[in-house]
Design goal:
The complex is a heterodimer of chains A (486) and B (438).
Chain A: H1 14-17, H2 26-36, E1 49-50, H3 60-69, H4 84-89, H5 97-110, E2 122-126, H6 127-139, E3 145-149, H7 155-159, E4 167-171, H8 183-195, E5 200-206, H9 218-231, E6 234-238, H10 254-260, E7 269-274, E8 286-291, H11 294-303, H12 311-322, H13 324-351, E9 355-356, E10 364-368, H14 378-390, E11 394-395, E12 397-398, E13 409-413, H15 419-435, H16 457-464
Parallel strand pairs in A: 1-11, 3-4, 3-5, 5-6, 6-7
Antiparallel strand pairs in A: 2-8, 7-8, 9-10, 10-13, 12-13
Helix pairs in contact in A: 2-14, 5-12, 6-11, 13-15, 15-16
Chain B: H1 15-18, H2 27-37, E1 50-51, H3 61-70, H4 73-76, H5 84-89, H6 97-110, E2 122-125, H7 128-139, E3 145-149, H8 156-159, E4 167-171, H9 183-195, E5 200-206, H10 218-231, E6 234-238, H11 254-260, E7 269-274, E8 287-291, H12 294-303, H13 311-322, H14 324-351, E9 355-356, E10 364-368, H15 378-390, E11 394-395, E12 397-398, E13 409-413, H16 419-437
Parallel strand pairs in B: 1-11, 3-4, 3-5, 5-6, 6-7
Antiparallel strand pairs in B: 2-8, 7-8, 9-10, 10-13, 12-13
Amino acid sequence: MSSISSNRKPVLSQIATNDGHAEKCSYFDGWKAYDRDPFHPTQNPNGVIQMGLAEHQLCFDLVREWLVNNPEAFICTEEGVDKFRDIAIFQDYHGLPEFRNAVAKFMGRVRGDKVRFEPDRIVMSGGATGAHELITFCLADRGDSFLVPTPYYPGFDRDLCWRTGVRLLPVVCHSSNNFKVTRKALEDAYAKAVEANIRVKGLLITNPSNPLGTILDRDTLRELVSFINEKNIHLVCDEIYAATVFRQPNFVSISEIIEEDQACNLDLVHIIYSLSKDMGFPGFRVGIVYSYNDAVVECGRKMSSFGLVSSQTQYLIASILSDDQFIGNFLLESSERLATRHKVFTHGLRQVGIKCLNSNAGLFLWMDLRGLLRESTVEAETDLWRVIINDVKLNVSPGSSFHCSEPGWFRVCIANMNEETMKVALTRIGEFVLRNGNKLVRKEKCWQNNLRLSFSFRRMDDVVRMPCIMSPHSPIPQSPLVQART
Amino acid sequence: MTIEIEAAPSVQLSRVADSETHGENSPYFAGWKAYDENPYNEVSNPSGVIQMGLAENQVSFDLLEEYLEKHSEASTWGKGAPGFRENALFQDYHGLITFRKAMASFMEEIRGGRAKFDPERVVLTAGATAANELLTFIIADPGDALLVPTPYYPGFDRDLRWRTGVKIVPIVCDSSNNFQITTQALEAAYELAKSMNIRVRGVLITNPSNPLGATISRSVLEDILDFTTKKNIHLVSDEIYSGSVFSPSEFVSVAEVLEAREYKGSERVHIVYSLSKDLGLPGFRVGTIYSYNDKVVTTARRMSSFTLISSQTQHLLACMLSDKKFAKKYVEINRARLRERYERIITGLRSAGIECLKGNAGLFCWMNLSPLLEKPTREGELDLWRTMLHELKLNISPGSSCHCSEPGWFRVCFANMSEHTLEVALDRIHKYMDQRRT
């Protein structure tokens, strides 16, 4: 007779025990260093500055002011409490009509009102993270694949693959043409999949790009549309950085392209959106799947039950996004502040001989440190990255974690800190370059002709001294402790 | 000359997208459509369909509203909103520590302090819907099965199976012993799965039960725990109605059983909780997984990235539930009101000649209409259901949609309406039963 052994542990699933959560990669190691020793201007001025987190923290003063002036937007205050009951029981996966209407309108405004979005095509999800997983579940079976241009956001490895069992295949892009997504690269990636007997169900693009901070031009977008129609595969466009475009050329959304293109099969096109980057509300988990395919909208909506947006938050978002004047002002200010931040940073880096990819969007820079590598390998990049984390005390993200084909590129987030912290960061970079000036491996192609590796502190200070763009009530500069990665 | 136009090959969606496993074509949801098309309103549509198919708790909103009016900092992040920025940025999948502590403490309050909950084991998800799916992804592989006692909440068909590819094998319960789960039934389900070459990974129970509206006794819980230990499988206890037990001493949580065993063998046990039923806040999407298994906690936390709770909502509820005096008061008053409602509906039904399963929890009662069936079959039950819906204009849930093995049982919700509406519903039932007798 078998005895009951209460010491045996039950087994977990394969999904639970594999590394599909993708947290073992270096993208997250830097965060650990930051968590252990976070920078604070007075309490820990030698701590690690968080530059690995793409957050938009430059406009909270504007939002706070709106909140104080609009207490009825909160259903749980005296002003708003008569709405409380209705909102609290509202769990309809269509979402509050006012929420859908406001989001559709906002999406249109962000695109310069060049296109109109239909509220009925808006499907909610648990942030863009949830949206990506949801659309993948709708479009692909286990074992199928999506093509994705490199470099790409590391989270995609988890979001599109972990629980879905779908694979990501790279469309390799190169710095020689500023990482443009070429027809040849697409065809190569597709052919490789066919050869390996892997079914390709779609192409995922991020526009504006993370980590590049660049936008796709019309020709490229048309090329992509033509490609997916030819292969009869889906096109998923992650446009979560749409409102972070701060300079010409203007952002062109896929929604504009397909409106012009009569031949495009609309059933193939889907947009992923979120308020985490454009508005700076990652905590509120407002993810959107917008599909031109009715069946996907219907199925997606049912699936959204697994990640609906809190009705309390829907109500607040509906209120704030419906305030046309506020939003108009917000979008303008946000652009300007991002533009200024970008200018100061790129200028500061240029002063010490560091180039970045020319960009006009995003909350980060794609920094070219190929010249500082002892050799052009991932190992050398990783070594350099460890030096930057441990010696320079900046958490930046190495290009290899973004599947970049060329070692030496780093993503540096610049919109998640206030001015003072930014100055400290630039100073540290300057000092580092100064210290390592004679160890530099000069590669002709990487450096500008008039590179000056030596510099004076005074010049650096001149560069970074700018009129304060932050409200005097700016909160402390450190990012809230993100213990998101173990 | 005919011109042939080649139709563009329609692009396929995934198998998951094409399947019907979302379950929305069942009568459980069809009744809702009838309600949507003709909803009852005391004043403007007194002959409309009364919604009795939705397990919502609307009896205690005033308590919440009162609290919120007095504590505006819970919803506005304080005067001048200084806390706004930090809250809006907070997307850490550990969740706000204040909120986790408040949830752990609330769960303890509900169990009268008879079990302790560690905030470090609380994982947050957007609703119990997400929690159940997430746990399934963690404890089972596609093609595996979970054993679930019948009758069960129709949503499980979607939540446990749709995207996970996991199957449900029923643990068949019947009225002969008030639908209690027996070891024989557990064994039979296990053997059935084995005979179909399906690997069983766990048992999922709902305690208090939906749709029965009754708690599971301690001895049955012990049996279930022993069974899962013997088979070395998981036990998921969905306790989302734990705060809706009319009499606190009648509810025994699996947490108490584990505590009594000094947590030996507890790594197989996971509890699902939510504020949708007990606090009546389904719109806020607040679910939790409480696991005694460290690896499950870590993995669940990572997976919760797909379904985090809005930080705005976490903040609000952290304030509210950390107020222990308020939480205690709420739980007591809520229980008393639900009990009142329950007793009213039972009395009302009894006087119309209808009996229900003896219940002690939940937002519904399990009504026995089998004597009214023309034929003791699923079709007979659905005929009666249609009569209820189209003649009496009452949307109630047929037992077959809950996979009940015996036809004629119906789940009737009573906490999602005013007292007046409940009287109207009872009146309609009375009239119908009188008609039948003549």
